[in-house]
């Protein structure tokens, strides 16, 4: 993986552009910046040539805006490849492009979803094979920690391998940025059973922590991290991730996502998506 794909936003100060260029320098990676432009030109009373001219003007203006962003971030003469694509739906192009040799797709986060509409962010989380770094508008603060989240409950080999990938990636970012790393494992206590007084939440969590200790020890050994870097907390998974990230003042949360699709994903979502609704920090998601 030798490149970063930065999706330039429409805003004048694009968080993804500045964060991506910062990471590219630290990781010694090439950068490709892609921007999109689109307008419905069918209602214009112009012939084909006139419509083509308008389209080209819009593409040229979008390119000029992106180059201006890059010049402010990286200086004139940065040599970054810029692609401007004419498309209303941008996620298919990004997903197809990211199937190549890309270390990550970097995009400013935009939260917008309803039962009949799925945002670009959600499409990327569910379908993009490359890691997806969704950037908040908050600047990274020196010394802020990085937090990884793993699922110790799963016995599926793919998810266990994903746990290792998540920690490995989080450790790489932590070492690169010279900040502390914390790994969070959440014990999800079944709320319905607690509400029906069928289990005691504290006793259940204590027993699960004991049962999961061998898996935790094995994961620490595989990743080379000391057990002191791992935290086991009980609570609703997404809300616990968000509260622990806030407690740590984490600048980046790294997690795995299974990327459900269809109606089930629209209604239920998954842990990464639920957490993303609430997180105020950058989020790096990886798939199995």
From TrEMBL:
Q: Is Cytoplasm one of the keywords UniProt gives this record? A: yes
Q: Which residue range or ranges hold the UspA domain?
A: 169-285
The UniProt entry's GO CC annotations, sorted and at most eight, read: cytoplasm
| Key words, A-Z | Cytoplasm
Q: Which domain of life is it from?
A: Bacteria
Q: What does this protein do?
A: Required for resistance to DNA-damaging agents.
Is Cytoplasm one of the keywords?
A: yes
Compartment(s) where it occurs, according to its Swiss-Prot or TrEMBL record: Cytoplasm
**What is the name listed in the Swiss-Prot or TrEMBL entry for this protein?**
Universal stress protein family
Main subcellular location of this protein, as a coarse class: cytoplasm
